[in-house]
Specification:
The chain is an all-alpha fold. The chain has one domain. The chain contains 17 helices and 2 strands. The protein has a two-stranded antiparallel sheet. Helix 3 packs antiparallel against helix 10, helix 3 packs parallel to helix 14 and helix 12 runs antiparallel to helix 14.
Length: about 475
């Protein structure tokens, strides 16, 4: 096929064994032209070399990035819990469930862009990948604006659904309302991060976050407590610091992408937008359902008072350390799988995900042991309230059993996203998570909060085992989707 008659879009899937790589179509604006001009030199090829070394090299900066965000979230919870008190901690905890829903929508664009752009980089169609980044930025900001407007206008209803106490609701509205104002910039950062990761560059987003998080760590107590000339914003100050962390990284990231020609702005292409949404939507639906389930789960937890709500928040903060390790390895797996499928190296793609899973589960084992043995110590980092400490320690000891398998869930879910096969994990994850609502209600009547914590832990464990089964099944090897080759 001559380059002059290339179709506007091409299907992306594993070719039949009879189709040699040399016969695959090449865009005249990419491929050899890239090698000659040196454009897109920052794109890292992930389709050759030692797989273990490749996984480690890509994953370590990604894990470091997620650890930075976890560090900030932990310090943020420390200031809220120790300076505002259990009510403030409960307010942030309940707000987080709606924040998760927002982030799930941001991940729709992030996951979709990673799959599309990584596949393009694997095919050496770097210009097409750069145009996809432009389309993703447009989509992410547009979605964020709509969600922010809807959320701010319905704050009372959001907390009314959870039946939170009046004092918790008042602080929660202040925190969530402030967070929503910065949603477009936060969503934009997710697209920026995905653009770098799809190119095999996890170091740049790490450096971006490093500078911003260090600044935000200093800003957090200043805004919460009103130190020096700064205004005393209380719990809203925690949200402002969070927004600052992502928005500055977003703006700097755009500048870097433009300079490296990893984004080429232009009118959005509908076929690329459709591909991003098609791949990312199941992941977003999973996150939205997950958040809604926690909203209703909170109604069951609320019956046991503010200490139980605060303990839920403390538990999430502690678990987030091992959870984010899995997220980092999952981001690496998505990029490696996507590029190798673009290069028609399916076996290498499959092995890379198992190697990343092994890394994450090894760290998860260490985290599970620490979570169980140091539960009370971890709880005391966030609060001085003895009731909250006791309840948080109970949550952490019960949850430790699922920490080992969290890595498998997150890595393989990321790998499936990189392959563009996000529907089966959505169905599996949402089904298991939805079971928490009836199971928690039933278990709470028999064993109190322990019944709720056991429900959360066992369903999380089940999701990890299920993702291992889906990856082994191999349906992802046969996924077909299309995007523009502009």
């Amino acid at each position: 096929m001559s380059e002059s008659v290339l179709p506007e879009s091409v299907a992306l899937t594993r070719p039949p064994d009879t189709n040699p790589a040399a016969a695959l179509p090449m865009d005249a604006r990419d491929g050899l032209a890239t090698a000659i001009t040196g454009e897109y030199a920052s794109v890292t090829s992930l389709v050759s070399g030692s797989l273990t070394s490749t996984v480690a090299a890509v994953a370590l900066p990604a894990v470091a990035s997620t650890m930075l965000m976890t560090l900030f979230a932990t310090v943020d919870a420390f200031w809220v819990g120790t300076r505002i008190g259990p009510v403030g901690l409960a307010a942030v905890s309940t707000s987080i469930f709606w924040v998760w829903m927002l982030i799930s929508c941001a991940e729709m664009v992030s996951v979709g862009l990673t799959a599309v752009a990584a596949r393009r980089h694997g095919e050496r169609l770097h210009r097409a990948a750069a145009r996809a980044v432009s389309d993703a930025l447009f989509l992410s900001v547009a979605v964020a604006v709509v969600l922010a407007v809807v959320g701010i206008s319905h704050l009372d209803a959001l907390f009314g659904i959870m039946h939170t106490p009046p004092d918790v609701t008042a602080l929660g509205k202040s925190y969530l309302g402030t967070y929503l104002l910065g949603a477009p910039l936060i969503f934009g950062f997710f697209a920026i991060d995905a653009a770098f990761r799809a190119a095999g560059d996890t170091r740049t987003p790490f450096l971006l976050l490093l500078g911003c998080v260090l600044a935000a760590l200093a800003l957090d107590p200043v805004l919460i407590l009103g130190l020096g000339p700064a205004p005393h914003l209380g719990i809203a100050g925690a949200a402002v610091a969070t927004i600052f962390t992502r928005s500055v990284a977003f703006l700097i990231g755009i500048v870097i992408l433009v300079r490296r020609r990893m984004v080429i702005f232009g009118p959005p292409a509908l076929d690329t937008l459709r591909a991003i949404v098609r791949v990312g939507l199941p992941t977003a639906v999973t996150g939205v359902v997950f958040s809604n389930i926690y909203v209703f789960l909170t109604r069951t937890t609320t019956k046991f008072g503010t200490p139980a709500l605060a303990a839920l928040g403390v538990g999430h903060r502690v678990e987030s350390w091992s959870y984010m390790v899995g997220v980092g390895f999952g981001a690496a797996a998505a990029a490696i799988v996507g590029q190798n499928l673009g290069a028609r190296q399916v076996d290498r793609a499959e092995r890379s995900a198992w190697i990343a899973t092994g890394f994450a589960m090894t760290i998860g084992l260490v985290a599970a042991i620490a979570e169980y043995t140091l539960a009370t110590t971890f709880a005391r980092m966030f609060t001085n309230d003895p009731l909250v400490i006791a309840e948080s320690a109970r949550y952490l000891r019960i949850g430790a059993i699922s920490t080992l398998f969290a890595g498998a869930e997150l890595v393989l879910e990321g790998a499936l996203g990189g392959a563009g096969d996000t529907l089966p994990p959505m169905i599996t994850s949402t089904t298991l998570t939805a079971l928490r609502i009836p199971l928690a209600a039933w278990a709470a009547t028999r064993w109190g909060t322990s019944g709720i914590w056991w429900t959360i832990s066992l369903t999380a464990l089940g999701r990890g085992v299920a993702m291992m089964g889906l990856w082994k099944w191999g349906r992802w090897k046969r996924v077909v989707w299309a995007t523009s080759t502009r």
